[in-house]
TrEMBL record:
Residues 142-244 form the HTH LytTR-type domain. InterPro entries: CheY-like_superfamily (IPR011006), LytR-like (IPR046947), LytTR_DNA-bd_dom (IPR007492), Sig_transdc_resp-reg_receiver (IPR001789). SUPFAM superfamilies: CheY-like. Residues 4-117 form the Response regulatory domain. Keywords: Phosphoprotein. It comes from the Bacteria. This is LytTR family two component transcriptional regulator. Pfam families: LytTR, Response_reg. It comes from Ichthyenterobacterium magnum. GO terms for molecular function: DNA binding; phosphorelay response regulator activity. The modification 4-aspartylphosphate is found at residue 56.
Amino acid sequence: MKLKSIIVEDEETSRAILRNYLKKYCPNVDVLGEASNVEEALILIRNHDLDVVFLDVEMPYGNAFDLLDKVGDVDFETIFVTAYNHYAIEALNAHASYYLMKPISIDELIKAVDYVTEIKTKEDALQDQVLVPKTNSVSGKITIPQQDGFEVINTSDILYCKADDNYTEIYLNTNKKKLVSKTLKYFEEALSSSSFARVHKSYLVNVNEITKYIKGKGGSVMLSNGKQIMVSASKKSDLLSYFK
């Protein structure tokens, strides 16, 4: 699959190195343009239908996060390329697909491009389709603690779980909500044998209740009750692997 891309980097030498690496080691990447600052990058992004943006963090007149804020919700993947590792958390929160450190490792660059290629291939195959999971709902039950004992619920009745500090909100297909004094990590492990996917640091969803995947900066899924939930870039590949 061909990936349409741009390079956003204020140092000409760094742009040349990345451009040459991509040409030699990642021939499926087409570099449509290069930008040295936020304003130049905005023009390129608005004038091209991109699959991936290689993005330096620190630039004149604004940084990578300023650029992403100005762009809004788009359907390209972002590969951060920086000499500073302290931006990793911000990059994760900005739904970065990959985080490359300078000097660029060729092996890591290839891994980053392969990851984005896999994501875009799956997204294109699933876009605008009614999603059919590879696995059916597991007929099982789970217990949730209560002050006077515990309640047994069918795992197939759970639409999604949402983190709330050290508590978890469980949303059921009966329009009921349960607040449980267990972390989302607990339920991720408890439901690991069922068709549940961690799509975000705050959400665990029943894959069988997903009706649509929507491309975007991080992407999102639509559930059978109309609820739309954001998907983290780091969780996207795992989620899409559930579908045919």
